[in-house]
């Protein structure tokens, strides 16, 4: 798969292509279906399947007060798109220049001028161009005039009766419902980051944890304790995961993500790792002392084993 970070990187003569356009935040099951249809149409018509996405959410420029949190980093999005056997992805900087293009200019300069587009796959609510002034009808009119097809994609069949969307996934993560979010994503929600030194309170209590840096990427669920997995290179370990400020102790103001690896004692400092959230166990609680906290941590580990099907 080719990855381009600007229009200047697109090679001369690329295409002819079939294109879909979107942020693809989360690359959820609905996005995967769009990518599947893109690949199918491209194969049938002998076109290059090409995804146009953006380096940031359009709301960061158009309505920053409503900017949603990213579910995935750009690198993670591209890696997941790559798994769908797409020929190329083009990441455009969503800046004032791009946002200011008229619908016609977007089509002529990017879709036709750079990608030699013959088919564009979009949803019924697709908007593009300056202040989202272009819609599906606009795109169809330009296609009829300039010689490309517009293929409308219906919503993917609901998951458990619910329409799949990035917004819903964010809501589920904010409520701690990582299990339902996983159904919509088609995989476990995850965060990536470097293991750094923490306060080492877990080690003192008999539960040493791997702490992720504050620069970790991915959407972190609401505060609480979760069952999940800790992935380090080619190794995947069951883990009890804590998210929050550890309210039992004073002086902890920043939210942290830390994982206690079951039946392991590893030196992980400096490792780039992934933490996957499988199920919510409980909310974050300020305990009255160390002994009830330790008792609860033992119970969290027991529940984690049950959820992950590990036995005692």
TrEMBL record:
InterPro entries: FAD_synthase (IPR015864), Riboflavin_kinase (IPR023468), Riboflavin_kinase_bac (IPR002606), Riboflavin_kinase_bac/euk (IPR015865), Riboflavin_kinase_dom_sf (IPR023465), Rossmann-like_a/b/a_fold (IPR014729). GO terms for biological process: FAD biosynthetic process; FMN biosynthetic process; riboflavin biosynthetic process. Pathway: Cofactor biosynthesis; FAD biosynthesis; FAD from FMN: step 1/1; Cofactor biosynthesis; FMN biosynthesis; FMN from riboflavin (ATP route): step 1/1. The keyword Methyltransferase does not apply. SUPFAM superfamilies: Nucleotidylyl transferase, Riboflavin kinase-like. It catalyses: FMN + ATP + H(+) = FAD + diphosphate; riboflavin + ATP = FMN + ADP + H(+). Keywords: ATP-binding, FAD, Flavoprotein, FMN, Kinase, Multifunctional enzyme, Nucleotide-binding, Nucleotidyltransferase, Transferase. Residues 184-309 form the Riboflavin kinase domain. The keyword Kinase applies. One of its GO terms (molecular function) is FMN adenylyltransferase activity. Its EC number is 2.7.1.26, 2.7.7.2. Belongs to the ribF family. Catalyzes the phosphorylation of riboflavin to FMN followed by the adenylation of FMN to FAD. This is Riboflavin biosynthesis protein. It comes from Aurantimicrobium photophilum.
